Amino acid sequence: MDFVKLLIGFVLLIKGADFFVEGSSSLAKIMKIPAVIIGLTIVAMGTSAPEASVSINAALAGNNDIAISNVIGSNIFNGMIVVGVCAILRKFAVNKDIANRDLPINILVSIILCFMIMDGTLSRIEGIILLVGMVLFILMMVRSALKNREEGEDVKTISLPMSFVYIIGGLIGVVYGGDLVVDAATAIATMFGLSQNFIGLTNVAVGTSLPELVTSVVATRKGESGLALGNAVGSNIFNILFILGMSAVISPLTVLSESLVDGIIMLATGGLLYVFAKTKHEMNKGEGIICILVYVAYTVFLFVR
Fold first, then answer.
1. Out of 28, 216, 222, 241, which could bridge 33 as a Cys pair, Cβ 3.0 to 4.6 Å?
2. Distance (Å, rounded) from C-alpha 284 to C-alpha 264?
3. What is the pLDDT along the chain (305 residues), one digit of tens a residue?
4. DSSP β-bridge partners for residue 122
5. Closest to 202 in 3D by CA, of 220, 189, 191, 221
């Protein structure tokens, strides 16, 4: 029964996020908000909605291991699998702003998080600091988007009432699905004698990262240069600043020593992406294969430890 609940939870998370993004994008188009702002804000946040729901629900339930490991595991998956698969499917150029601004910010917030959890806790004060960082990041993105307006790909527009139906329905699916995933993952971890930290780093993290994977793969197949990397990096920044920030404000998180090791690995993968992106300002098939192999090695490491 727990496995059925886990499956239903993932379906609700993924479809809920899909409806949320479509409804929000349509609403933004109706309100004449530039497409570039939609991509930098609504889509990035929408694809991270499952991670937000799982981690915040876990924090409310007192399952600190899942709250933290879900974010760290998702970030490693986004950087290595999402970007890696897209690079294998099609070589893509890396946007200059992503290489010079967003990737360094991703590394910076990863370093800040590692320092914050070195003492074994993520306090409310530290959570507030992360949330303030999220506000500053959004303001910077919006300012940059308004300064460099470009007409992007048209977004499929639905009616205004249906846009609200999609948004509200999607959010309900994400929240309820996240609750099911946390409950089922906790029960399964106990059943098999596995730690919540391991479950959060693997199946929960992978499941909640599927929206990023699907969005990036579709963008790559359509030839949208750099969108795959931008989506993954933007989601990673959102995961750390907003999701962990909000989780810590709700309930201060106790951090296992294992999570600090995983955080350092997350930082290393962010650095690897930066090196790849700065090399010829593109991501190619060889680099994509390396990313996939790094994630496979990390998964093996999780089983062994």
1. 28
2. 25
3. 888 888 898 888 778 877 877 777 677 677 766 554 565 566 667 777 777 877 888 788 777 667 788 889 889 999 999 999 999 988 888 878 888 888 999 999 999 999 999 998 999 999 999 999 999 998 887 787 667 655 544 545 688 889 889 888 887 887 788 778 777 877 877 787 777 667 666 667 777 777 777 777 776 776 665 566 777 888 899 999 999 999 999 888 888 888 899 999 999 999 999 999 998 888 899 999 999 999 999 988 887 77
4. 253
5. 189
